[in-house]
Here is the input.
Amino acid sequence: MTTLLIKNGHVVDPANNVDAACDIFIKDGKISALGKNISEKAEAEIDAKGLTVTPGLIDMQVHLREPGREDKETLETGSKAALAGGITSVVAMPNSNPDADNQTVIEFVIKRTRELDLINIYPAGAITKRREGMHLAEINELKTSGAIAVTDDGVDVQNESVLRRAMEYAKTCDMLLMSHCETSDLTEKGVMHEGWVSTQLGLAGTPAASEDLAVIKNIMLGQLCNARLHLLHNSTSGAANAIRNAKKQGYKNLSAEVSVQHFALTDEECLGYNTNAKMYPPLRSRDHVDAIIKAIQDDVFDALTTDHAPHIEPDKLEAFQDAAFGSTGLETSFAVMNSYLVKAGHINFSKGISKMSVEPARILRLQKGTLGVGADADIALFDTNHSWTVESTRGFSKGKNCIFDGKKLTGKAVCTIVGGRIKYREGQILS
Amino acid sequence: MAPDTAEKDLIDARAGRDASFFDLYSIDQANDNDLALIFDISRRFRHHKTHKFALNKGCSQVCAFFEASTRTLASFDLAAKNLSMDTNNISSSGSSTKKGESYLDTAETLDSYNIKTLVVRSKEAGVAEFLSRHVNAAVINAGDGWHEHPTQALLDALTMLDHFKTTNLAGKTITIVGDIMHSRVFGSLVRILKKLKADIRVSAPETFLPPFVENFGLKTYYKVDEALAGADVVYALRVQEERGAHGFIPTLREYSKMYGISRKRLDLANKNAILMHPGPVRRDIDVHSALVAVDDQSHILRQVENGMAVRKSLLWLLANRLDGKVKEIKRK
Here is the structure.
């Protein structure tokens, strides 16, 4: 029997409507008690005075690059980065090499996760073979081997018939289908948001309509069979409106997320040809960002994610149009949410935590994201007022391509607990 | 060696001044003083024609052209030679990435030859600006994708100012016709015209107008005749054949009918209006053949002459700073 007591912290547990000074007692990896002034003795104690204690964060969209591009990130370095950000569970996207369109890759990721014993990694499989949008992957086989969802991550299934059948088939297998919404015929060679900034930079833009159209298409096809459909990284006002309407019409199996950079930053980050600001979907103009924030307030968006996308430096030391898409984010997502949504006065802290724990757990059907008695003791301790400047070169991720690099954020994970064991404390990984 | 009369003339015209920038990748970098300085000495360089100056003796220049060019390359190279620079030109069609070497590695290698000026042309936007952060040499943008071509704008502005014999373009209407969206010439021209207080009009089909182009501070016209009425400068841009293939316009034939600058159309502009074009002209598509070189109103070849002078000015200013300041760079 192992026991751990977290004392004197302020607990925010949206699943159980707790927002109060509380102690948490952990026994054998599960939460065994939550209450004021727990006096029971534990083998180890954490004094959480001045800290906020929340469920460990769950990130629904992370690119860990292993197998295939271990020079960019590994399951180990990505896990450590997650711990440093208060994240205890992630969904690993299937764009590895080979693609996770087969059970071998899924089984490999699950095996490595167990060996590493750092965080919970839930691999997602591909919708189609080689993520080419042509032939369905063996979705039931993926499910059986442990995949938590299917997605063609980074590309949308462009052929509507294939997408429709994929939704029907995923439903048959009781599998969540996650769509990256993009109309490639409209994106063409776009490398950033199409707008005034792209005009000033002379760069080919991606119109918001490329995303809007794909979101609408996905929703319409999803409604045909009431698919369990999750829309990844939404960034436009049109996407927000379409999802708002679909939910209003009662499409209950629909969920949607926003990656934190899309409510925090605008396309002006691209000025000076800053390649760290190059990502898909692109950072949008202020009007879109404002619409996204409004939709987060209104719970149009269920979850907040990172879309963590590490790259080696040469992939970003390029002409903007040739540079790789994506930014890292595991070590900054909590601070970005806290700074740009909570401290900025858009939502309260509990809502922010909910969208990074309870809601992802609900969408993914994980018995996590809660501090209720009996739940897995995945817990994060944050100093919500700690102000710091992001220095990605000092992070755990192999990717140093963080769009928040050099920016000042408020809030930092102090201690991260997975399955009742302290895995991260004040800058150190404990394994 | 003591300066000769022509050099003394240039040194007097410079009057101890320096540019506010170390590299020139965008007209946004040039303030009013910079423009005045460049125009002052460019006029003197133009006056002395091909005189061999020793002003940049001992300085080297490399033109790294990652996209094909004949005119601009010749102009930069001759300008440097007129200033007694040693020059070398690297041309490569297709991105260097395809050869396995990045732009940055190429530029850092060239920089290690202790060159003073690195003139860069690329088919991608932002390459000159990106490289300028990492090399000691002064980087001059000779055209980056659809973004900018600052020396073209400097020579265009000089051509206009000298025609009107004014120090700015307040009250003058400049009408730019053609493929605005894909034009680096437009990118720099619109910025410099704004600085010089001109009234700017653009005329093109919507497919050639980038989003929010009016934010530059200009008026857009679908009908070229309306845009030309009362113009003081008619500036035609080149339309590239491949644009038709990509569906921006149905055919060059239709484009020429709708937007080509003919004698009749030019007459809609003010009586003393001038016709300009950055070259190479597509005769009878952008501009009717008869208007290109022989017409009194056509300043197209005068633009080319001013180009040499402007480039000499920049090379002298950037390779030989009087204030001794050096830029800070980050080696990667």
In short: DSSP finds twelve helices and nine strands in chain B. Strands of chain B lie at 60-65, 86-91, 117-122, 138-144, 173-177, 199-203, 219-221, 233-236, 274-276. The mean pLDDT of chain B is 92.
